[in-house]
């Protein structure tokens, strides 16, 4: 950032949370690329925050899997291998399908999931890929939390950072925003109808499609 550039604007919340959310969004959308260094000095300069705040944000990003750091090295944006992608979708599918099955038993879809779907629909209407990234992860995270299993929710949280990396990847972004929004709407409809078989089938198809897109883009890079 040069002297003529203003500090990046962040939303009003706790300062650490705001910087963390902004960095997470920039990584997820590819503004900060895989393998790129994210140092305390960089965060201090770009956000005009104190070094302890920058350090706390980086540590949280490492904890989510968005950043990785070897001993005594600067943190860098995680670079997923082909095997990482396959393993991630294996784990993600197991967690989310189990959560969807439990949620379909009650049909008690949480308000946060409905709000995420409205945001997805809006993103589809305006071809808003940034909005898609935010709403996509909110939809799936809300679904898992609504399953009522704290352990499923914790396991899902552990891979959320890597999920964001795939959502923001070139492969995932090759899909039309409106089509992705429609896939989520179909899953939501089945959950609300308490149709667990259809919910599972639609969720698996959705995740398989995303897996193929991400994997295909990786293989052509």
Automatic annotation (TrEMBL):
Cross-referenced SMART domains: FCD, HTH_GNTR
What superkingdom heads the lineage?
A: Bacteria
Query: Is Manganese tagged as a keyword?
Result: no
Which InterPro entries has this protein been placed in? Answer: GntR_C, TF_FadR/GntR_C, Tscrpt_reg_HTH_GntR, WH-like_DNA-bd_sf, WH_DNA-bd_sf
Q: Which GO terms describe its molecular function?
A: DNA binding; DNA-binding transcription factor activity
Q: What range(s) does the HTH gntR-type domain occupy? A: 13-80
List keywords of the entry alphabetically.
Answer: DNA-binding, Transcription, Transcription regulation
Asked whether the keyword DNA-binding is assigned, the reply is yes
Q: Which PANTHER family match?
A: TRANSCRIPTIONAL REGULATOR, GNTR FAMILY (PTHR43537), UXU OPERON TRANSCRIPTIONAL REGULATOR (PTHR43537:SF5)
Name of the protein this chain belongs to:
DNA-binding transcriptional regulator, GntR family
Q: Which organism is it from?
A: Micromonospora pallida
């Amino acid at each position: 950032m040069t002297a003529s550039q203003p500090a990046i604007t962040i939303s009003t919340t706790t300062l650490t949370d705001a910087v963390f959310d902004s960095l997470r969004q920039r990584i997820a959308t590819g503004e900060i690329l895989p393998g790129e260094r994210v140092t305390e000095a960089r965060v201090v300069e770009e956000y005009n925050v104190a070094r302890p705040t920058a350090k706390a944000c980086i540590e949280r990003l490492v904890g989510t899997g968005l950043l990785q750091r070897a001993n005594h090295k600067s943190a860098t944006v995680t670079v997923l291998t082909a095997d990482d992608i396959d393993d991630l979708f294996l784990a993600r599918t197991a967690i989310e399908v189990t959560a969807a099955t439990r949620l379909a038993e009650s049909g008690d879809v949480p308000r946060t999931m409905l709000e995420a779907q409205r945001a997805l629909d809006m993103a589809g209407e305006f071809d808003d890929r940034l909005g898609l990234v935010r709403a996509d992860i909110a939809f799936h995270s809300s679904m898992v939390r609504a399953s009522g299993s704290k352990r499923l929710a914790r396991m899902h949280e552990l891979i959320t950072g890597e999920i964001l990396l795939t959502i923001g990847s070139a492969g995932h972004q090759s899909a039309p925003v409106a089509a992705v929004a429609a896939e989520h709407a179909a899953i939501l409809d089945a959950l609300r109808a308490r149709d667990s078989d259809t919910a599972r089938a639609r969720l698996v198809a959705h995740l398989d499609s995303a897996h193929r897109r991400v994997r295909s883009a990786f293989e052509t890079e």
